[in-house]
Specification:
The complex is a heterodimer.
Chain A: H1 3-25, H2 29-54, H3 57-85, H4 97-118, H5 124-146, H6 150-170, H7 176-204, H8 211-214
Helix pairs in contact in A: 1-2, 1-5, 2-3, 2-6, 3-6, 3-7, 4-5, 5-6, 6-7
Chain B: H1 3-34, H2 44-54, H3 65-84, E1 89-90, H4 93-97, H5 100-120, H6 124-155, H7 160-168, H8 176-192, H9 211-214, H10 220-245, E2 251-252, H11 257-284, H12 293-316
Parallel strand pairs in B: 1-2
The chains are: A mainly alpha, B mainly alpha.
Chain lengths: 220, 318
């Protein structure tokens, strides 16, 4: 394996971590969706590069699924939902960005400190990919915790799932059946969440999840 | 170290100050052309400086000695820092004596003096400009240092000549940490040179100005000296980015006259290209609110930090 190969793998996986930070930084809806699409493109590129390096053709299918579902279909569908909900102009009030970013960097540090000693027996790729994947995963969690708007929580969830796929592709590739079922379950989760979004909006006239705190379930 | 090396070093020292106004003239010209204006000649900054030097310097009644001394000290520190960055030749004697952290420290000294001078007369604008400058500097300096650390970790040295030699060698490839350091350095140099998303160099609108607010009380030769220092600072940052990220063509100390000529040509082309991209970015973006600037600089700091962390991963896992 030449240094250039590993440099490109490092570049693609590292850019996913960077895009996760960009997701945390964005507070406008459409920009958030665009960054999420780029996140999926980076995932597809990373998985395709792994497929080429490991000579594992089925990983190309994984990359294609990531590209089609997460890079194209879900962003377009979410964009339509955002327009129909009428929240495309609103700027989300997030917990202030500075502390969130610092916390995110701490999470990246944590995942590296945890992952590198645990995976000492594995090859350099797997170790690097697993460390980056855990960071993407934790950053997705962080996004779900710090956001109030339901749509951005969905995006946090999807980016978390991207991290899972990255981890799986590094570890000698997961079986295609598992991959396809995960892909479909994400799609179904997406549908369920979008139905919930409309139900929430119908009932509370907002998709700000803080409104749910006031509800105790007994309102008429 | 031979005599000729020192001669080249002296030539470079003269060159950075001599061509700095030309660079700012070129950026103004490109900007004017992009906005479909005719624009002043690229030599206009030289004429401006000449005019300012001939004029009488008006000084406020309550100005102290610091107010009069500050412009020359600012020019001196900035000039020394600019002379330390390899421009057309690397591996020169002064560059070997001082590394990139010294350059950051010299620029910090210049900024400190400028902020003091802004406060000295006691006008409200000067104080406002100084406080904003310090607010931005508190984020820009660590961001710059993080980017520097990333580069030094790569090259195993903080000498700019060694870093640029390492970039030419086989060790440097496509690496995300390098890209992050580059973006962090670009953001820092935009903020430090008071370019558009952070500060507008061509306005005196009191709500937004930072750099201009601090030097509002200066006139005549003092103003000329400060303007020259600001131009040298822009040249310094562009040369720094060019020498680290596009080291091709730079002459190594001790090579013949032809290599120096090629280095000079390559340096001019690189600076012109960087100036073009800088102005293109400036015309495409709107001025930021002052309170968003810390976020913008925070991004640079975060990128530098992330670059170091990612570099650490790739080093440890290999």
């Amino acid at each position: 394996m030449s240094p250039l190969d590993s440099d490109i793998a490092h570049l693609l996986a590292g850019s996913m971590v960077l895009l996760s930070f960009l997701l945390l930084y964005q507070d406008r809806m459409f920009a958030l969706l665009n960054v999420f699409a780029f996140h999926a493109f980076a995932l597809a590129g990373s998985v395709a590069w792994q497929a080429y390096l490991q000579r594992a053709p089925h990983l190309f299918i994984t990359a294609l699924i990531a590209l089609l579902f997460k890079g194209v279909i879900i962003p377009i569908a979410l964009r339509r939902i955002v327009v129909r909900l009428g929240i495309h102009r609103s700027i989300e009030t997030v917990v202030s960005i500075g502390p969130t970013m610092l916390f995110g960097i701490a999470l990246v540090g944590l995942s590296i400190v945890v992952m590198l000693p645990v995976t000492q027996a594995e090859g350099p790729f797997v170790r690097e990919d697993l460390a980056f994947a855990l960071s993407v995963l934790l950053l997705g969690f962080l996004m779900m915790v710090t956001r109030r708007n339901a749509v951005s929580q969905v995006i946090g969830f999807m980016s978390l799932e991207n991290g899972l796929v990255l981890a799986a592709s590094g570890a000698r590739g997961m079986p295609l059946v598992v991959e396809i079922s995960v892909g479909f379950s994400v799609l179904i989760a997406f549908m369920v969440i979008s139905i919930f979004l409309f139900r929430i909006r119908e009932r509370f006239d907002t998709v700000d999840l803080q409104a749910l705190d006031l509800s105790r379930g007994e309102s008429s | 170290m031979s005599y000729s090396d020192w001669l080249i070093q002296l030539a470079q020292t003269a060159l950075v100050l001599g061509t700095a106004p030309l660079l700012s003239g070129v950026t103004r010209k490109i900007r004017a052309r992009l906005l479909r204006r005719q624009g002043a000649s690229v030599l206009q900054p030289y004429l401006d400086l000449l005019k300012l030097i001939r004029k009488e310097a008006v000084i406020a009644e309550n100005a102290s000695w610091l107010f009069r001394a500050a412009p020359y000290l600012i020019l001196a520190t900035t000039w020394v820092a600019a002379a330390l960055v390899p421009t057309f030749a690397s591996g020169l004697p002064a560059g070997a004596a001082a590394d990139i952290i010294v350059i950051v420290a010299l620029l910090g000294t210049a900024r400190f003096l400028l902020a003091l001078a802004g406060l000295d007369v006691g006008t409200s604008f000067g104080g406002l400009g100084s406080s904003r400058e310090m607010l931005f500097a508190s984020l820009a300096e660590p961001a710059m240092l993080m980017a520097v650390f990333t580069l030094s970790l790569f090259a195993g040295s903080t000498q700019l000549s060694s870093i640029s030699a390492y970039m030419l060698g086989p060790g440097a490839g496509v690496n995300i940490s390098l890209a992050l350091a580059l973006v962090a350095l670009i953001i820092v140099s935009i903020a430090e040179n008071a370019r558009i998303p952070v500060d507008n160099p061509a306005t005196h609108l009191e709500l937004t100005m930072v750099h201009e607010a601090m030097i509002l009380e200066y006139s005549g030769r003092h103003l000329a000296v400060i303007e020259a220092a600001a131009a040298a600072k822009l040249l310094l940052y562009l040369s720094l980015i060019a020498c680290v990220f596009t080291p091709w063509g730079t002459a190594v100390a001790g090579s013949g006259a032809l290599a120096y000529a090629i280095g000079l040509l390559a340096w001019a082309v690189k600076l012109a290209a960087l100036a073009f991209f800088l102005v293109l970015f400036e015309t495409a973006i709107a001025k930021m609110r002052v309170f968003r600037v810390p976020e913008f600089l925070g991004i640079a700091l975060m990128l530098g930090l992330l670059g170091t962390i990612l570099l650490f991963v790739s080093r440890v896992s290999r």
